[in-house]
Amino acid sequence: MNLSSLLCIIANFIIYLAFGSLITGRKKHRKWSLPYTMVMGFFLYYSLFFFFCVPMMLKFQTLTSLAYLWLAVTGIVTVTAAAIYGVSWYEKLKEFTHKVKEHPVFFALIMLLCLVQIVVITGAYNFTLDASYYVGNVATSVQTDTMNIYDPFTGLWQDHFEMRYFFATYSMNDAVMCRLTGLHALIWTKTVMTVTVLILIQMIYYKIAEELFADNKKAALVMQLMMAVVNFMFISIYTAPNFMLTRTFEGKAIVGNVVLLVIFYLYMLLLKNHKAGGVWWMLFIVCFGSMTISSSANMLVPAFLSVLLVPLIFIKKDLRILPKYILCMLPNLCMAVMYVAYVKGYFVFHTY
Questions:
Q1: What is the pTM of this model?
Q2: Which of 23, 31, 50, 159 has the fewest Cβ atoms nearer than 10 Å?
Q3: Which residue(s) pair with 150 in the sheet?
Q4: For residue 210, which of 311, 92, 110 has the smallest C-alpha distance?
Q5: 26, 197, 232 from 245: Cα distances, Å
Q6: Beta-strand (E) ranges in 140-288?
């Protein structure tokens, strides 16, 4: 990993912090969590990018045009968030430094565990055809200054957009960042985004452990360790751990290892207080964001929400949960219906 990659990883988390602060730190002196804010910022970031990327693809605009437009949007959001919440960020940094001094062994072991996973996973050689498509799509988009128009395997022009990837604009954000930073697609996906996603996963594990064990640092550390063991030992082709270990930068890996975990964490919060409006809004943002990351989320997320929220209706004996549950599923269900309609030939978006 070179200095450019490291700076890009740091920049990612600053941007996620800025976006997340807009929805988790609205009230002055409100208690907020740094990992939670960054994770939510990740989903808000990709949700907003969707609304800029899709119209520009439909208008056949260049990747460079989208890159500079998104740079302006990201810059405005980051500067605005820094102006509003800069003091809160500084105070949170001091609070975190104080926690590290109080529990140096705990945080040292957490960082070591995270670092070991980063080194092993980023150093692994992945040669799957599917993984090659995603990296190739980013590289092709950068080289041709287009978006989803050329087949990354053959380099041939496609006369229509493939709906499986059209609305999942996550890979186009990778292309945008390659254009802005000058990094090669392979470096951005295999290093920058892989490390970013791995750190996000560890953050979510930490928040779940915090919710389960409160201030018991030993129990939280054991849980983090056991999750690493499970991930590295769960050897099978189609599992979330396998995608995390070999194809971390792909949308499907993010759905399996970030999206579903965040939904589960929010469900834990709803078990404590199902009337918390803020948690429901966060759940909606996560579900909408998942749709922009991978089309696989359009099947998995509604199914997972049903497994969690239908029983919650009976647990809490409150039918008012039902419309909120349906609203959270709606983005994914709409995209699933659109994809079926596309496959059946009811509509197509041409590239000319």
A1: 0.93
A2: 31
A3: 157
A4: 110
A5: 36, 11, 7
A6: none
